[in-house]
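Dear colleague,

Following up on yesterday's call, I've attached the two folding results inline so they're easy to grep. Please treat them as preliminary; we haven't cross-checked anything against experimental data yet. The first protein's sequence and structure tokens come first.
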Amino acid sequence: MDRVQKAIVMSLITTSALAWIASVNQPDMIAAMTTYNPLSISLFTASWTAGMAAMMFPAITPMVLMYNRFVINKKNNRDNQSSATLEEQQHQQYDKAISYFPSLRVIIFVGSYLLVWAVTGVSLLLAWSMVMNSTIMTTGNSFIIQYLYGTLLLIAGVYQFTPLKRICIGYCESPMSFFMRRWRGGTYGAVNMGVYHGLYCLGCCWAYFLLMVALGWMNLLWMGLFAGIIFGEKIWYRGIWIARAAGIALIVVGILVAAGMLPSLVSSATSMTGSEDDTGDDMTMMMQNDNANNSANDMAMSDSSQEASMDLLDDSVVSRGAGDESNLMTSDFNDHAAEFTDNHNGNVESTMDMD
């Protein structure tokens, strides 16, 4: 391995490591799915592309090294030709001009490859948002959700046994056969082959990434698991066995999810709608708190009214008692006055009789 190849390997590994670090904090997918905010979609696209670099760069390292070797060999063969036309001489001058930056075509090749995955991420996001907004967010029926997720897992598992999967993984496993079939020279060739390689990788791995978007598995745990599966599929010459083993596992899990035997998996999948559910829960809590406060105020007002009524009742009783006592005192005074008057009159009459 020469210095350029070592530099390419180190660049891919370093970029992948930085992308893994960048994938720790990911933007909220639910904001992009529900609001279609361009800023949210752009943040998701950037995060998704970084995640693809983290997951796929280790697996495509043999393909990139093979492409760099072909570029160097083609350049050397052209330089060794003694009889060259004017157009070829101009082309040689162009190659010499970019030879100061020997990895330029490699960067174009890898950039075109990542472009395919960036477009795929946006397409998966928008397509699944339509399904989510029309079913999960509206119905909220757990049975519909588990059947939907179970079906997705079954589709992803069955695809691992299809001829298209076998063809795509064959080209990814054998860089030589890919370049023998798709080789194009120049900058346009780098773009063309990068896009084709991205499409073949998409044919191998689209089911994994559909699950990552649909089931909310855009986290380091699931990214690491799928990255390991993809790496084994592409690096090992019998990677189709890994693909089929993963397919069996996905089918089994899909059946269990559809049967309702893995509720924790469904709940973790629906947790990506947590931000909106939390908002709804917060609104509900606020309404409940308002109702509780209103009820407390009503009870306080009722208690106040009752206390006021009791006070008024007590005041009326006291006033009535005071009135009754006053009437009793007046009656006693009148009785004493009448008795005194009667006694006085009797004394006067007795005096007159004695005279």
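Below is the second protein, in the same order (sequence, then structure):
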Amino acid sequence: MTAHSAEPAHGSRGPLSGFRIGVTSDRRSSDLVSAFERRGAEVLHAPALRIAPHEQDEQLLEETRALGAARPDVVLVTTGYGVCRWFEVADAAGLGTELTEVLDEAHVMARGPKALGAVRAAGLEHVRTTVHESTEGMVDELASGGTYRCVAVQLHGYTDETQLTRLSALAGSVLTVTPYRWVRPEAGDRLSRLIEAACTGQLDVVTFTSAPGAAAVLDAASAMGRYDDLVAALRGRVMAAAVGPVTAGPLVEVGVDPVVPERYRLGALIRLVCDRLASDQVLRLRAAEQVLELRGRALTVGDQEVLLGPTALALFRRLAATEAVVPKRDLLACMPEGGDEHALEVAVSRLRRTLGSTGLISTVVKRGYRLNAARIPS
């Protein structure tokens, strides 16, 4: 953190100008990052997990040969990426034709449109999707149809033991195929910084695109001793945004209520984040004849815009939350790096200079400070 509480804003303004967004995904993260940055946001990218191919493809080939021998009557396909990689490895080993035959003979069910498109791209037309686009939904549909001789499942990065147990009760045998796996990134510094930024209110949104990734963020926060702080932040001012209800699951379990788009797609997630930030996270105040607008950490006072540092942002938000006097102890509690009353006085003095008017913040002797502005209803 720099010694200054604010810096001039720069760059072209977009609908997300001033906002800081944390992106925790690995796959297709560039799509999310570039989309938010094009709209003016600052992005902190820290993959909680990354997708790694098998160190040796022989395991995948053994699983493919097992399918060829078993000829399952049902194959559940969960991800388009997994299907593409599965066929890529099988083709390289001369097993592509056999894999196509196995899937052509089986009843193939795809978890969503991307998985459906990948299967059809492989030349298979007899495939359908589920209504709820989840592994649980596919198993529900199978459960309504009776029992089966053999069911095969293409796993998506991690093993869903609950659904595999359910399948074991429906089928004589259950085979699994894992074209890729989730692994923790070797460098954890970026994720630690993202968690710390969320805990101290320096992020406006954290996005999640997979259930394992969401669980990994919570696990990392626990290892840092910041679990309670992160959960509190995601329950409060820092918006959690998940691409779908399955991804949201680990967050919901700990009492976080993430926003989820109606269509479980990255594009829909991006639009939802933009809409929610514009409607819920833009603070407008009137002080005499002057209008103040806070978008993320970008504060506009009249025709001047500055980017607030962490301490200035925390103080301004706390002062703007009420028209009453805010006690010094409350302001000290919200300062990211803590401090004593002298540090608070220095920080408030810097914030006054940033606002360009000493009259906007009043000192109430022996009590605290008050922001002389009223919120403008949205």
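For the second protein, one point worth flagging: The first strand starts at residue 6 and ends at 8.

Best wishes,
A.L.
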